[in-house]
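Section handout, structural biology tutorial.
Before the tutorial, make sure you can parse a SMILES string by hand: atoms, branches in parentheses, ring closures as digits. In the record below the ligand is zinc ion, and the chain has 331 residues. In the tutorial you will relate the predicted structure tokens back to the input. Do not try to memorize them.
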Amino acid sequence: MTPEIPATPSAIPTLAQTADALCELDRDADVETVTMSTGERVATFAAVVLPVVGLVAAMILAWGGGFRMIDLGLFLAFYLISGLGITIGYHRLFTHRSFEAPAWVRWMWAVAGSMAAEGSVIDWVGMHRCHHQHSDDHHDPHSPHQHGSGLKGLVRGFWHAHTGWMFKPDPVNLERYVVDFKDDKVVQAVSRQFGLWFLAGLIIPTVIGGLWDMSWKGALLGFLWGGAVRVLWVHHVTWSINSVCHIWGARPYKSHDESRNNVVMGVLAFGEGWHNNHHAFPASARHGLAWWQFDSSYLIIRLMEKLGMASKVRVPDAVRMQAKLRESSKA
Ligand SMILES: [Zn+2]
Ligand SMILES: [Zn+2]
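Predicted structure of the complex:
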């Protein structure tokens, strides 16, 4: 059944920004969508498909012996840079403001996140705040839970949450979610330069790969492993937070959605897989709330704090955590 669409979306509070406040916004607002232009569809298709082509090319070359340790190094280095750019930068710093940082640090993380080829920081933040406002209701841009029941509904929901949502119209007025960045010179500049930094994330490993043994083939291998295959990997790790972490895993905390803690994604996605914790405490810089929940992004944020690169790091206190535990999770 189609939900009622209000004539005018309810007023959204100025995002003076605690992410907790974001999750208290009116869940009935924001129901209209805008259609995608042909150019946007082509760009999205290319972003999804071309890295797969890159993986096939890399496999064919590797079959013939075309793989060096430097290629593994470039893959891992740019996985770390762009993946942490998303988790520490785009997500915990910019979307949820779970800590503060000087301008040069904010610039660095915004650039690193741009290299993940997941859109500009402003677009990403707008979409993700919309996800928190509507998580797993009809207006969530990427919920796996609105696609029918049974195995068919699960498969359709998984595909939509993982990749298909990017081909659907965006919620209208995503700008309302990012008004706090209107006068933010760092975020505005890096968002405008998104194409440049995305290309830098492909060109730098290409140049290093070529210089390594002064060959064009080396440059191609650097491009494939540090660029295309790495983008493919980071994309699917990020997308798994939307799909896997809203379907499979534990739900120790009360949250108004189907978010889950998934151990595998907790490790691969630098702590982001503790997604039920995150939906319960969105403003927390720490997603792995239990001692055993490895959260590499949080460890790096703590290190940044010691080095003067981060301040006002937010974590929930024990009383709040206990209050939000589901009955079944209490000892
Ligand atoms: Zn979520
Ligand atoms: Zn979030």
